[in-house]
Amino acid sequence: MKVKHVLGISGGKDSAALALYLKNLYPTLDVDYYSCDTGKELKETYELIEALNSRLGKDIKTIFAVEPEKETPYKTTFDHFLAEYGGYLPSSTARWCTKKLKLEPFEKYIGDEPTISYVGIRGDENREGYISKKTNVQSIFPFRKNIWSEDVIKEVLANNNIPKIAKLYNSLSPNHLKEDILNRVNQPISPSFRQGQKLEFLLNSDVKLFNRVVFEYLKENTNYPVGLLEEFPLIDNDEVLVLDDIFKILDESGVGIPAYYIKKSYQVEIDGKIETGTYSRSRSGCFFCFYQQKIEWVWLLENHPALFKKAMVYEKDGYNWMDSETLEELSKPERVKAIKKEHFTRMKRQLSKRTTNSWKDEIIEAEGLGCASCFI
């Protein structure tokens, strides 16, 4: 049975690097690239997608929830659904934007064909990302030590599957590892020996062996898309990629990092002294993303004033992007100064606690905020 391979290009660093990584490492893997266009991305996002498109040698398909000015009279899909929701802006507690603009068009694009979706979550991140509820879609995480999704791990390491996993390890393990591994495999998960501990032991013992066992289990016992393949080359890859690796891939490819990550300077007066700080955008996504930090709104105001004004226009009838203040209030000079002062002071404090002096640390810290499902 034919299995489809797909990778969503969000316009961010990780998905772009993953596309380049898979193309270079597995040139025979026929991956389809797609991008969910909301119509409200930063211009730097569109520039990155265009640069990546030329490097991949294969078009990145743009998919829409509804095609602007064809399936809807509106010029963007965001505006279409905003009208459907009666002008109610999305928020952290009502993320209709993620559902309508990203997830539903992705699942419509996939259809019912068995599909492997490659996700660019790195080895230095502690999150799972979006897992489709469609049974024909399986997520794989090539940058992590554990490439498998939580649902797969839960099934493979379930106590009732111990005999099957033990049999596979017994036939596939090298002699010098077999006894120790089988002792752990045969130990049931319990309050004193949790799934995470068992997984970590098996990964640390031999990642490639663990991947082979999981692959064979999926082939023999499930309908997961990976299990429908004769072979799956990623099970022999034990690389773990972190943020520095991502930037290296982008630099060496010529695509470069997304321009919104490039730090820009700002000045702020603190206790009578002019201090110089830096700011940038911390993620891809819509220019008015409600997960932005206050300093990112200031960055938008000062670097993309036209987009900031467009974001302001959406605030009406009591619907705002932030609970605490409107964009009109945030844009007042004294408020901008206060935000910069708070940001500069906080960054100085955090810098004193870091073991490295890198702007990349700020990206890692900011990545803990936001919606993982949005970046597909």
UniProtKB/TrEMBL annotation:
Superkingdom in the source lineage: Bacteria
A single MF term (Gene Ontology): catalytic activity
Membrane-spanning parts: none
Domain Phosphoadenosine phosphosulphate reductase: 5-169
InterPro entries, per the entry: PAPS_reduct_dom, Rossmann-like_a/b/a_fold
Protein name (database record): Phosphoadenosine phosphosulfate reductase
Organism: Leeuwenhoekiella nanhaiensis
